[in-house]
Amino acid sequence: MTQTTSSDAQCAGFDPKDPSSYSHWTTITIRFADEDRMGHVNNSAYSVWVEAARVPFFTHLMKAKPEWLDTVLARQTINFWHETNYPGEVRIGGRLVSVGNRSVQSAYAVFRDGRCLASAECVNVFFDHRTRRAADPTPEIRSAMIQAIERDRS
């Protein structure tokens, strides 16, 4: 397992392993196929679980987006704290950390029975499908994301 290090989430003033740090929740059923030959859930499943939480979270935040605007994942880091096994469910908490000129940073954690199994940080870039390049978010989307960050800080 990974040693605890200073992360962007900790610098943003919240504990990435604390369930109360997250406002958006997604429940995932662990599949038998998620296990590896070691008899525990493979690390690759965690990335899929974070994506399963991130996509609906961003869809909700960007519901007023123009057709041409979306986000693409530029970076994802995952710290693995504890193993888990099939069968069962995990809950993935998510929150925004910061909004830049053309990117947004979010944080996630995977919990089972109140125990943090992994924490993740993602950077997504706003993307213009017409030009296939990074783009500025609309003022409405930026405002919605800043409001979400402020709600989570209070």
Question: Can you characterise this structure?
Answer:
- With 154 residues, the chain is α+β, with helices and mostly antiparallel strands.
- It has one domain: Hotdog Thioesterase (Thiol Ester Dehydrase, Chain A, Roll).
- The protein has helices spanning 8-11, 43-61, 139-153; strands at residues 24-29, 69-80, 89-99, 103-112, 115-128, 133-134.
- The longest helix has 19 residues, at 43-61.
- The chain is globular.
- The two termini are 32 Å apart.
- Mean pLDDT is 92; it is low at 1-7.
CATH uppermost class: Alpha Beta
In DSSP terms (H or I, runs of 4 or more residues), the helix count works out at 3
CATH homologous group name: Hotdog Thioesterase
Count the strands? Answer: 6
**Main sheet record:** 6 strands, antiparallel
Q: Radius of gyration in whole Å, from Cα?
A: 16 Å
Structural class: alpha+beta
Can you write the helix and strand succession as a string? HEHEEEEEH
The CATH topology assignment is: Thiol Ester Dehydrase, Chain A
Q: Are there runs of 5+ residues with pLDDT below 50, and where?
A: 1-7
* Second CATH tier, the architecture: Roll
